[in-house]
Amino acid sequence: MELRQLKYFVEVGKLQSYSLASKNLFITQSTISQQIRKLEEELGVELLTRDTRHVALSDYGKQFYPSAVRVLEEAKAGAERIMDVKNLQVGELSVGCTYSFSPMMMRTVLPFYRQYPHIKLNLTITTKEVLRQKLLNRELDLALTYKSPIGDEHIDSSLLFHSRLCLVGRIGELTGCGPTVSVEELSKFPLALPAKGLQARDTLESIIYAEHVNLDIRLEINSVRVLLDIVENSPLVTTVSEEAIHHIQGFEAVPIDHPDARMDGCYHYLKGSYRKKSAGEFLRILTENNAFEKAMERF
Question: Which of 19, 45, 51, 167 is 20 to 30 A off residue 285, Cα-Cα?
């Protein structure tokens, strides 16, 4: 039994097509068919049912398929461990984060690239729900979000740093605020807010829900980076985490005085997955190039 035979079998079983598997693997259909036949002869059973138009897993194939997938994943993890030993001179790292987390990525990606130019970095910025699914699908090595665990028994979540939701404006726009701002005081400001679904906006919505506060919302946008550009060049103010504006000149921030206005940073791995050395280095650089101290607590 060879790994390539398992690979061909898993691809055909997943796609239920020799032609699609051939295109994905860049191998001729005849080669795939021949190797799967050899695997079936070795096992003494038919793994796939075939006719002129369709291919599907047989009853034997359905039982064998999960084991074949696990073997391939273990083999891939073993290869990645070997790559890590090579002083991070080769390899690939897939990191995902939420939109609200993205400003910190801008201060992390380039330093990571400069230090490890031979590690291919794949960065995905999307919603918390999509990050969860991508972790479960093994499409990400590491996910970064604000607030809480991603919420799945198959995912390990750990606290990276403590943070708060703040009222943020260009210098001079928050004149009159004390060391904190109440939820009621937010109604006095013209607001440009993160779009609904972004974690900073979700946190704001949760704290005003029971307060019956009417906000003066002038603009909503799903890019925190563009949002901050607008706030920097207008009298509009916004609500984002205090970490979002660290190391950016021209802003001031006042924490919102509410027990639920926390925006703690978290990182997430798929349980049981191999944790790449490059992922640990990415977290180290993220910490060193931002203003927080690593908390590193497990939920």
Answer: 167
Residues 9, 71, single domain; the answer is yes
Inter-residue contact 145 to 101 (CB < 8 Å): yes
- Model confidence over 72-127: pLDDT tens digits? 998 988 888 888 877 788 889 999 999 888 888 888 999 999 999 999 999 999 99
Same-domain check for residues 220 and 268? no
Q: Which of 31, 55, 85 is the last residue of a domain?
A: 85
What domain range is 202 assigned to?
165-255
Tell how strand 48-50 and strand 142-146 pair up. Answer: unpaired
Contact residues for 107 (Cβ-Cβ < 8 A; gap 6+) = 247, 289, 290
Q: Answer positive or negative: Cα dihedral of 246, 251, 254, 259.
A: negative
Query: pLDDT per residue over 205-226, tens digit each?
Result: 989 887 888 999 999 999 888 9
Residue 57 bridge partners (DSSP): 48
- pTM here is 0.68
Residues 25 and 104 in one domain: no
Label residue 299 by pLDDT band (50, 70, 90). Answer: very low
Same domain, 150 and 184: no
C-alpha dist (Å) from residue 163 to 37, 141, 160, 189, 277: 57, 24, 10, 22, 26
